[in-house]
């Protein structure tokens, strides 16, 4: 029943996108305004898509649960955005960016999608500069670059440690222009709670107005979800407090396949947890690894103050094990290495953190140069920890950060439900089993500016612009089910708060479906999550009423979805009986602890069809590699 | 000309009016200040100075009309700004930490302005009216001034208002530059210094007159 | 590791809706010095929820000081007394044992209170929609290195562009003026070559939108700069003033 045709165009890898664009159906400019598109989420992908679709002449309705479309969590990305400009003359090319990305993802992404990402990367930089994004510059006035994990060329464009903010504000400015021109209607403080399907096609959404509590219906001929990732399933992650999987999950429950949910990235350079009351983890840009050296004391139970530990008693474990990439080894490797060091008891003061040391960099290029590059990150660190990183090494520890998995999409970024498109982190498409640094911004904007606007148009080419009735049966049914579920949550009146249960879920997941996984643990955690879900529906306490501002009810709905998604992550991790990228199965490693991939059996996308909570059906999309050879990933 | 009135009635437009009229009034004050300083060089000098101004009455009247316009705009706009800004911020905080984020001078502009307005009316009603219409053909201006400041309440009032004037100028001068867009790391500190210097010199200089005459009257000389 | 907690008395503004009357409610809390002030509220809300009481409504999202969602007035300071930090980056270690803390929402006519500490800042978006962009369509951009921009210019533009749109400038201003916010965007574009074609229309449109949204006029008290979590400089306001002045003389709109 489920159709997982990837629709990858024929031809050479480098010609696929060009050919595909030529073969797409077009909509007559005068007809474009007869088509409505709903875009949910206004991060890089959502704002980019909404603005560009508006520019093309479609009627766009954009939704965000924030008070302003500028607040999406894309804003928090620090380090930069990759592009194959080769401005540094260091041998970069579209093919190299593509190859680095697919290799970094441990050959678990779709070749054609990843290539297209690299192909449009250059347009993104042009677009952003034209928007007035103040990227870092050289003295001569040209754009500056820095290098990032998983690459040996310098291709990352940046604006201090606030690249995500600047790119998002660029997309936000384009969106604002379309709002003023009347092409985009902006709906703030609306949370999507259901997808409406009419005659097998996505035709609308149901949202809750977060101020009045009213449940509203909106209709269109296509729906684009750009609702971000699901790292908050872990409770503690670098995601924003409100980041959630609800929109994607409700679409999944309506028939959209969910792909590779177990591919979740744990970012190596985050601040360690300070205590029980912690609400989220804070990321420090990975760019710090350019000049910072990561080490732990060689001796278990080291008690000396950090500056008194001599070189001979320090273990620069990344430099030692991966001499060619050193501190710039990919994220999954860095994270896992830190975990092992701490498991061995070599963490700072025996706890769960490692040192990130800038002493050598300060000696080499001087404090002012370090300040110029990382000043605001250092300030942020000092503000949070009350320690001065110019004098004392930083302490870092990995934290859940990005989810490569997401709703399954074809080459057109259309999900398994016709008319439902998924862009940015919410889809699964480009990063495989691991994402390289500075590639999330690239993907969000590539999808938003340069892919969705074409492919949605192509879809409309074969869709009649008939108005959809928001009072139709399907819309009413969706509304009713949303109301019902709110009332259910409010009536349980149990003894645990939403956060209590969310925290329990997070503890289970980080332990068993985190940086390393094994069969026994996964089986155990599946049962435990299922039990926890029962606990939630019987013992949670949600206060207030639904016809009002109710932050408690909002969180309850999101956690209810996380409790289902968390189980699917474990189910997927159990199914994928190999180690690849961020998914590390203890059973599959070399004697040196390197991951062993199993290309014969697992070179596929695991796309899960929802049957009922706790029960999914697996569909496989085999990954065909025409241009690259499946090498063993080595960063030695 | 609708563009002009529209531009000047915007929030920045109102600032521009305050800045242009304010700086012009500082110019006037400078002339006034120099004239007044003649009081310290004795009766003849001062009386002669005022008489010579009296001799070119038509020119003085033109200058005065311009002053009326300047004051008019400055006061009208000032009151309007104060009123509108009150409307924009009707609810106050329970804890007010304004003194930790802004200067006393900047926050009190409407109030110091109000005090100066009251003074202006009294000052015009007494000395200006006397000089212009109450001299009955004589030219003993110096004596009029001296007589005025024999009264302790009058002298105290004048000194107080001159202090307030200093406060008003201290913020107003550099604020005008900011309004014109002349803000620069290198030059703004200099502008601020000049503004404060102006304020101090004016406040001390002008206050010295009532103090001088009052003390002199005490000494009977 | 057992950590010592700090005992505090909170006076928190509670208000059911824009129309109802608000008042301070007192809470006693014991909190870890490493917690942020918002984490303290999380804990407090968790307690209230357990007791079946309505939790305190406040907004936050990234908790890294960049999204601009959070914004509390803590003892009279928007985002707290510490300079150049957002509310979410304010840590409890900066309070003394036994201290009483007043927590209020941003107050301005242009920011109606929605509930407790949540306010409606949509006026800021309206200003951006009036002109905070460079008008060109996706796909029409020239090569990124085609126009050279000096390092200093790019850096100054970024200083302005760092504004997080939190509204603290409005909350701090005795006139509830949003001029620092407006000027940050106007300045960013005024500095960059990409902003030149619409430079003067932009400043006109954004200033008009600012005035229409109910914000007051700037009277140069500079409280905005002192309280801004990103340290946006008032030199941007000067630049905007200058551009506004020039725009009136230059544009052909009679």
Structure description:
The complex is a heterotrimer of chains A (636), B (221) and C (254). Chain A is of the alpha+beta class and 636 residues long. Among the domains of chain A are: 268-399, Succinate dehydrogenase/fumarate reductase flavoprotein, catalytic domain (Flavocytochrome C3, Chain A, domain 1); 475-602, Up-down Bundle (Methane Monooxygenase Hydroxylase, Chain G, domain 1). Chain A is built from 17 helices and 19 strands. Chain A has helices at residues 16-23, 29-32, 44-56, 94-104, 111-130, 163-181, 246-253, 317-321, 331-343, 359-365, 367-385, 440-460, 473-492, 498-512, 519-539, 551-575, 599-602, and strands at residues 36-40, 59-63, 81-82, 156-157, 184-187, 190-198, 201-209, 215-219, 222-225, 258-259, 264-270, 293-297, 314-315, 354-357, 394-403, 406-407, 420-422, 604-612, 615-622. In chain A, strand 7 and strand 8 form a beta hairpin. Chain A is globular, with a radius of gyration of 24 Å. By secondary structure, chain B is an all-alpha fold. Chain B has a single domain (2-88, 98-219), classed as 3 helical TM bundles of succinate and fumarate reductases, CATH 1.20.1300. Chain B contains 9 helices and no strands. The longest helix of chain B is centred in the first third of the chain and has 32 residues, at 57-88. Chain B is globular. The model of chain B has no long low-confidence stretch (mean pLDDT 94). With 254 residues, chain C is α+β, with helices and mostly antiparallel strands. Chain C folds into 2 domains: 6-115, Ubiquitin-like (UB roll) (Roll); 121-135 and 147-250, Alpha-helical ferredoxin (Fumarate Reductase Iron-sulfur Protein, Chain B, domain 2). Chain C contains 8 helices and 7 strands. In chain C, the strands form 2 sheets. Chain C has a 5-stranded mixed sheet with strand order 2-1-5-3-4. Chain C has a two-stranded antiparallel ribbon with strand order 6-7. In chain C, helix 3 (151-161) packs antiparallel against helix 5 (179-191). The mean pLDDT of chain C is 96.
Uncertain ranges of chain A? none
| Beta-strand content bin of chain C | 5-15%
Q: In the CATH hierarchy, what is the class of the domain at 268-399 in chain A?
A: Alpha Beta
Number of continuous helical runs of chain C: 8
**CATH fold-type name of the domain at 268-399 in chain A:** Flavocytochrome C3, Chain A, domain 1
CATH class of the largest domain in chain C: Mainly Alpha
